[in-house]
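Hello, quick one for you while I still have it in my head. My current little project is about how a certain protein chain folds up. You're getting the sequence in one-letter code plus the fold written as tokens. Would you mind checking whether the tokens look sensible for this chain? Here's the protein in full, and shout if anything looks odd to you:
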Amino acid sequence: MQVSRGASYGYDGFGGGITMRLGCAIMASGEGKRFGSNKMLADIYGEPLIARTIDSAPRGFDVVVSTRWPEVAQICEDKHCPCVLHDGELRSESVRAGLSWGVERNWKGCLFLPGDQPLVSADSFEAMVRAFDERGRKHPVRLACNGEPSSPVLFPAELFDALMRLEGKDGGGSILKDRIDVVLVEARAYELWDVDTAKGQRRITEHIAACSYFDRVANCINQ
């Protein structure tokens, strides 16, 4: 397993004084079969998808990208983002690779963020951390829309061993199925959009383009 290390993001809490060390493992190892090619490299308003997701990752977390694609690892290097380059084809292997990077960092929890989900807001990340902290840092927290669970998921340290024991195609969601203590944090629908298909790519690109346009208009008005 090759590990590329760049800048480390020490978590110092959001504005409300919460202080703990958290990890963020960005999952970027999928083949993109439905998409038709490596979707991590798909163009999203002038940037590769994985670059957009890295930029969206919560500030203050220890961020690492878990991937088996050298092209993704190169983007991580260019962005000075730590990356674990592994050779496993299964989802469980990608989870282990990302989590192993943080074993000695004393993480109280690890957020697993899909590499094709670049629209999660800072507000939603903060809401997840607050919910995690308010419940003793012992319960999983995941984003949802209208009560429907989705990604990303923030796992407490007490579940790290179970995550490391995952096998085959199982991901973190498999150990949440029978739990009744999972905390859901409501998010806007677009934050949960992903890029499984070319249609998903267009939808996210158009959303970012629209936001960019309105930002430019606002800047002109404020000048």
